[in-house]
Amino acid sequence: MLNFHLINVVLCDCVSVVLGQNGWSVTYTTQSICALKGSTVDLSCSFRYPRGHKVTSTFWFTEWGTEDIGLDPEYAGHVEYHGDKEKDCTLRITDLRERDSSTYWFRLLTDQEGGTYTGSPGVTLSVTGLQVKVTGGHQDKILTCITTCTLTLTTYIWYKNGQHLDESTSPQYKDPVSSNYEDSYSCAVKGHEELHSPAVCVQGQSCNRVTYTKRRICALKGSTVDISCTYVGYYSTTSTFWFRSDKSTPEDLTRDPGYAGRVKYTGTNKGPFTLRITDLREEDSAEYRFTFKTYNFEWGHSFPGTTLTVTGNTTLYFTIVYHNELQEKIN
């Protein structure tokens, strides 16, 4: 099955914990984890049980219930048990949502009387998004990339008007901030650029900015897909177009021979601006970005866009679509 998995963002309080008695134990590699919304995290652990016992069942549960989360509809297509019935009890949670913030425990059952054991204290997972906080006066604005839990060993990336600005281990942007009303800023974490914060205006509310409707889309070969965004141009827009991020220079898709007769743009800055691609091919799988120009401005090309995956596997397609729709309903 196709993966959209991302590596873990950060791990906190990285201390192994082993509790147990009479041959029982569960070792959690990490007690506390802070991870980005939309990323993937592994809750790593191992276990031991007395000789003569045979493990019949293993599962994880949360502090707000004792049910196996693998059977919980809210986790459908969202969790993967990567362990076994011998010693590994690693759980992977994909496409993290803020509601996944909880304490997770592992439990094993064996074929002997009294053969059940739950590992304490479990793993506390905190899920956070990114936001740019603007403080200071009119001429001395301070930008901080904030989270609801502490990310460690992290490099922050800053964007101004969609263009890469700087990278730093500090969540605070170090250089003077433009006081222009048309400028917007956004931040991301290195390695997870597609999970960037919303772009915010430093002065007023009418700055240049682009917001993509979806971060990723899966579509069937031969079908039609709509990729949308909304944008605000401080000055009157002179041109708009979509392009593939894997091109050395941005190229309007309507002029790309590989998309001839298959691409159409619809919409204005008063609503979603949509790229429609028909008769999809597997080679259309790529990240698509949007840019616009005014008489004296062009939206930057380094701001992450929407990733499209085209597949001919119907089982894979419906699995991913169901998963994405479920996430949208729950969030």
UniProtKB/TrEMBL annotation:
PROSITE patterns: IG_LIKE. Residues 1-20 form the signal peptide. Keywords: Signal. Coiled coil: none annotated. Gene3D superfamilies: Immunoglobulins. Residues 121-203, 208-311 form the Ig-like domain. InterPro entries: Ig-like_dom (IPR007110), Ig-like_dom_sf (IPR036179), Ig-like_fold (IPR013783), Ig_sub (IPR003599), Ig_V-set (IPR013106). This is Ig-like domain-containing protein.
